[in-house]
Every structure is written in C-alpha cells, then in structure tokens.
Design brief:
By secondary structure, this protein is mainly α. Helices cover 92% and strands 0% of the residues. α1 runs antiparallel to α2. The radius of gyration is 19 Å and the shape is elongated.
Amino acid sequence: MTPDVSLHLFAQLLWQAVVVSAPLLLTVLIVGLLVSVFQVVTQIQEMSLTFIPKLLASVAVLVFAGPWMLSQLVAYSSALIRTIPRLV
C-alpha cells in the first residue's frame, strides 16, 4: 500500500466521520445556543436546564437519523472491505 492510498483512505474516513456526526453535533449546537439565549434573557442559571434539552435533542436525532447514519457507516465499511483485494 502506497502512502497516497493510505492518505486517500484516511481522508475518506475523516469525511465519513464528519458526514455521519454532523446531524447530531449541529442539533446539539443549536439547542445549546437556544438554551443559552433563553438563560440570558430570563437570567436563570440552572445547570440541568442546559443538559436536559441537549440530551433530549440528541436522543431525538439518534431515533430519527440513526438508521441513515447506520446505513452510511455500513456502506462505507462494505466499500472499504471490497477494496482490500485491490490494495494488497
């Protein structure tokens, strides 16, 4: 395996990680921002107020986007496994 192939595989791996984690990370970011704005406006500084909405949003995203995320990972893994004979 040449260094170019290794770098290409690593780049594909990183891109796949970004694509699969983006829905969850963006949702938690948006919910956290909205809760922070709510806390600033109401001057409520409760720690559970920041944690619970993020947790609920994370679970909702995993329930709805989980099958898509899993199919993306399975497709990437199977494509990678199919290319192993050509890499050796």
